[in-house]
Amino acid sequence: MSLVKFVCAIITRSLFFLVSLIGVWRVKTVKNDNMYWLLTVLYLPLVVEMIITLTRRKGKDYKWFSPAILFFLISIIPSIWFLELHHQENKASDPQCRKLDSWDNVKSILATNGTMGEETLKHLERMLTSVCPNDWILGLHQVLLILLILGKWLLPLGGGVTRDQLSQLLLIFVGTAADILEFTSETLSDVKERNNKLVYVILAVWTWSMLQFPFHLSVVTSQPQNSDEPKGGDGCCNLVLSRHSTDIWNIVESLFIQDGPFLVLNQILLVRQFLSQDSSRSKCVDKYL
């Protein structure tokens, strides 16, 4: 059983490395600068964590915190920042590309000129670079969130975490990932003009929301019910807190890490859009008057 946990720990971190490396390669490709390979330096914390966890903890994760997921986020989030900012700055000048919105388009990309027998890497690179930048970024967002859920499922459980708690945590992760993906895809697509400050704010809120994945206090802090607890006074308060600690932590995380910032930013974007439309109407009226 320990061998299975050891292998799962290695496979999970290998997937983290692979996806992060794809992100760095994409940044280097769109920027056309080999200096961006230096982003791989961010892999060092994940390498150190892997060595320590495999040697001292036999691959087991921690109870309230997953350093592997945190270091994976540190290694890939900067690449997504670079890609998002580059795409927002170069929307008008993006070359002809192929969208991944249908199976026919996917087959046409796979059927690009060249044979897999000769110059395989160059053929693969041409095939990947022909995909639209927006589809590349959306794909990285989706793979990142899927891998966070899959990685948490594959990582060996920390001490004190039960299978039921892990199942509850994975369900929370699925709902959270869907909300985050919807937020980033819709808000960034609404940025029509070149506005780096607005993109910075959206990406900052997105980065802040991703920090809830390494922590799972909302699940493992829950206590089993105890019928011997006192019924009144402080005992009653303690009983309520122990029974509903999971719900309390969920509300706190949702309010301060995800739903709260998302709501504030969406309201700001709505007000900003309303003011811009009102300004355009005023200019139109002045033109005809």
From TrEMBL:
It comes from the Eukaryota. Signal peptide: none annotated. The chain crosses the membrane at residues 7-28, 34-52, 64-83, 136-155, 198-217. InterPro entries: Transmembrane_26. The keyword RNA-binding does not apply. It holds the Pfam family Tmem26. Keywords: Membrane, Transmembrane, Transmembrane helix. This is Transmembrane protein 26a. The lineage of its organism: Eukaryota, Metazoa, Chordata, Craniata, Vertebrata.
